Amino acid sequence: MKKGLILEGGAMRGMFTSGVLDVLMENGIEFDGAIGVSAGATFGCNIKSRQPGRAIRYNKRYSHDWRYCSLRSLFTTGDLYGADFCYNVLPHQLDIFDLDTYRANPMEFWVVASDCETGKPVYKRLDTCDERDLAWMRASASMPLASRIVEVDGYHLLDGGMTDSIPLDYFESIGYNRNVVVLTQPETYRKSPNRLMWLMRLFLRRYPMIIKAMRDRHIEYNRTTAAIRQRAAQGDVLVICPDKPLNISRTSKNPDEMQRVYDEGRRIALAQIDEIRRFLGN
Length: 282
Description:
The chain is an alpha/beta fold. Helices cover 44% and strands 15% of the residues. It has 13 helices and 8 strands. The chain has helices at residues 14-26, 39-42, 54-62, 71-77, 83-94, 99-104, 131-140, 168-173, 197-203, 208-215, 217-233, 255-271, 273-280, and strands spanning 3-7, 33-37, 108-115, 120-125, 150-152, 155-159, 178-182, 237-240. Strands 1, 2, 3, 4, 5, 6, 7 and 8 form an 8-stranded mixed β-sheet that branches.
């Protein structure tokens, strides 16, 4: 039995995921592999480096640093979340990412990015978190309209949530057959059509296939979550999700709001901790 962890994105809703992951780490619950999408990738990698508390700490500490997230960063670099600051300065100088532990931990860590040329998801295992792996992680979290397209390994990539927001099917296809899914929307959430499609068509006019994927994204997302709810009811997967909308802006810079959403993740995870242990056979 291979135990997997699937982490949805959602920008600052990812603070919920960070709270969940910290509770899992603090309680010694481990997985054979994890796969993260967007914020699920950038915050979720801390489970492989065994660093509880890191994601909430650096987000609160640097939330008002223009190099981290600001319109100034968007206008001067092309990225709302500054690429050099987030993927170089922060993990290597300011809040050190434990590369040695990450590389020694046998747990696999995967990310999902969206191929702008094909409109399909691309899945990448990150073994070392070296410069190339960090480019993949950045690609997974590069929100359209707020980020430059990331070019790595011959791909032109953007946010993984554009094409596979909850990659349970993929993880099962590579042998993970006992999976915990962490969602950042409540069970009652249903995605609506994107109101900014007109702007997407302008911004991504060179990439008709990714525009098509974005046009149909709400349909695919709702199909996926419906299937996951059914699988959870049958006991095939275990879902951890908020019990109500988190009501935090995707780009919130308010440390109190970050802490509130993080605490919600901790509360929900602690309430389910025995269920999680039973499900995983711990």
